[in-house]
Amino acid sequence: MSSQAAPTRAKRLTAPEIQKRKGQIPLVTLTAYTTPMAEIMDPHCDILLVGDSLGMVVHGLPNTIGVTMDMMILHGQAVMRGAKTAFVVIDMPFGSYEASLEQAFTNAVRLLKETGAQAVKLESGPTVAETIRYLTLRGIAVMGHVGLRPQALNVEGGFKAKGRTEDERAKVIKEAQDSADAGAFAIVVEGVAADLAGEVTRLVSVPTIGIGASNACDGQVLVTDDMLGLFDWTPKFVRHYADLRTQIGAAVESYAKDVRDRSFPAPEETYFAK
Ligand code: KIV
User: Fold this and answer.
1) 130 in catalytic set
2) Active site residue: 190, 253, 268, 269, which one?
């Protein structure tokens, strides 16, 4: 098998198997929100992330702050119906883990029990290592998330790449190391310069999964709808692998024309009495 070939798997990947991929074949990760998309992506991906980006991508919210536990559970259940062997991680939404260790545990358990996903992801911050330790000691697999943290939007004043000052670099490195030391099995590194991504990847013992963080990481994740070209605006770090916005627009335009000129449905698309 070449190192680029998709691995064939008879059963679902586990957190320890993902952890062992540090420095090995890069971990392929995409976001998933629905059953059919999870089915399509499952054979090609190591990890499917039910990201809280679903608030923006599926529900049209301006950011991820408004995403609720119920929204995550509904989409987590849909993804689990389609994902057969990929490892499924579900985001803990803003407000579901910051108040106390007990709140984080209760909500993480609810996400895992009600969806069947294998792990939760939390965005980092100065206090998150304590939460990661608390959850992992109690049997919950946790993925960390450092660098640009969309849930901190209101404190940060926008979605800004991280690591441009020495202070920021030190913070990102410390949060990544603290998350790994606390038991995270992998860490998303978002929106940081290539050299910082490389340094974090060298320094932490668990795989880093980059988004806007260069190819120095141990894996990559993208928001699926971004890479499929469903949006007008594309961040610099996204590569378009399809142009579905144009294709869907053209398909709907053709359908509308066919309905209006009565060429749809045709006789072969119509039931007739015997
Ligand atoms: O919510 C999400 O989709 C994410 C990815 C961008 C990593 O957290």
Assistant:
1) no
2) 190
pTM exceeds 0.90 for this model:
yes
Kindly report the protein residue whose alpha carbon is nearest to atom 5 of ligand 1: 51
Residue 189's beta-bridge partner residues? 146, 210
Q: In this predicted model, what pLDDT tens digit does every residue of 202-244 receive, in sequence order?
A: 999 999 999 999 999 999 999 999 999 998 888 999 999 999 9
What's the rounded Cα separation, in Å, for the pair 53 and 137? 28
CATH of 15-242, one of 1.10.10.60, 3.90.800.10, 3.20.20.60, 1.20.120.1560: 3.20.20.60
> At residue 266, what is the residue type?
A
Let me know the angle formed at the C-alpha of 119 by 109 and 88, rounded to the nearest 5 degrees: 125
Phi, psi of 131 (to 5 degrees): -70, -45
> Burial, 252: exposed, middle or buried (Cβ in 10 Å; 0-12, 13-18, 19+)?
exposed
Alpha carbon nearest to ligand 1 atom 3, residue: 51
Angstrom CA distances, 120 to 47, 109, 186, stand at: 12, 9, 11
- Determine whether the shortest distance from the Cβ of 188 to ligand 1 is under 6 A: yes
Question: DSSP readout, 70-105?
Answer: HHHHHHHHHHHHH-SSSEEEEEPPTTSSSS-HHHHH
Say if residues 48 and 34 touch (Cβ distance below 8 Å). no
Pair 128, 163: CB distance under 8 Å: no
Question: What are the residues facing 143 on neighbouring strands?
Answer: 121, 186
CA of 84 to the centre of ligand 1 (A): 21
